[in-house]
């Protein structure tokens, strides 16, 4: 698949989507009828989208949640609609090139591009994104080698599998032990959310 042919037409069409496709439930979490089957899924995975303002705000709370719940939280970008899929392509274009923790500021820069900097001018968007990637010593999505594209699409397939099997339609949320989906809007603080995560991690053992 030629990545340039996929990205360029969408640059002109991208609009910022809402954070969910449907209203969240009132309960603090729901249990999946069938657990997610993705291999090596972290005990807790934050499920989010670069196009979601609430997800962007959640980033600042992640360290406190990790500390309170005593867990390292993984990340998965949803692909539940066209805008989320496009944003996921941008996210995994960067993350597929990183081994370990992303450089400080990179995730926020990706949020900023999707939510603020992109426009109807595809070439301008390409230039901004290429400059952003260069700033972090990453290869632009438009200049990726075939091997880099394969790594990107492997990450995209994994993200799509998580999205489909978890049936998540509202972000940000957290997937615990592959079978519990947390309703973040039902929590009033990072501490309360951490308590739910700890309870669900123990529940799944």
| Outline | globular
Helix and strand run = HEEHHEHHHHEEH
Give the mean pLDDT: 88
How many strands, which pairing sense, and closed or not: the largest β-sheet?
Answer: 5 strands, mixed
Q: In what range is the share of β-strand residues?
A: 5-15%
- Bin the helical content: 40-55%
Radius of gyration, taken over Cα atoms and rounded to an integer in Å: 17 Å
As an assembly, this protein is single chain
First-residue to last-residue Cα separation = 41 Å
The stretches of 5 or more residues where confidence is low (pLDDT under 50) are 4-18, 21-25
Number of strands: 5
Strand order of the largest sheet: 1-5-4-2-3
How does the helix and strand content classify structurally? alpha+beta
Number of helices, where a helix is a run of at least 4 consecutive DSSP H or I residues: 8
């Amino acid at each position: 698949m030629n990545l340039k042919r996929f990205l360029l037409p969408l640059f002109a069409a991208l609009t910022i989507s809402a954070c969910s496709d449907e209203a969240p439930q009132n309960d603090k979490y729901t249990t999946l009828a069938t657990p997610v089957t993705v291999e090596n899924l972290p005990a807790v995975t934050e499920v989010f989208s670069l196009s979601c303002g609430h997800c962007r705000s959640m980033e600042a709370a992640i360290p406190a949640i990790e500390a309170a719940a005593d867990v390292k939280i993984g990340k998965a970008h949803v692909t539940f609609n066209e805008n989320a899929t496009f944003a996921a392509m941008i996210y995994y274009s960067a993350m597929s090139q990183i081994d370990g923790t992303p450089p400080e500021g990179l995730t926020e820069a990706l949020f900023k591009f999707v939510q603020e900097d992109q426009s109807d001018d595809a070439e301008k968007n390409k230039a901004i994104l290429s400059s952003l990637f260069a700033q972090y010593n990453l290869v632009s999505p438009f200049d990726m080698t075939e091997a880099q594209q394969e790594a990107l699409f492997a990450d995209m397939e994994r993200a799509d599998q998580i999205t489909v099997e978890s049936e998540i339609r509202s972000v940000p949320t957290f997937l615990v032990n592959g079978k519990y989906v947390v309703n973040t809007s039902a929590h009033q603080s990072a501490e309360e959310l951490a308590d739910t995560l700890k309870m669900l991690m123990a529940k799944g053992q």
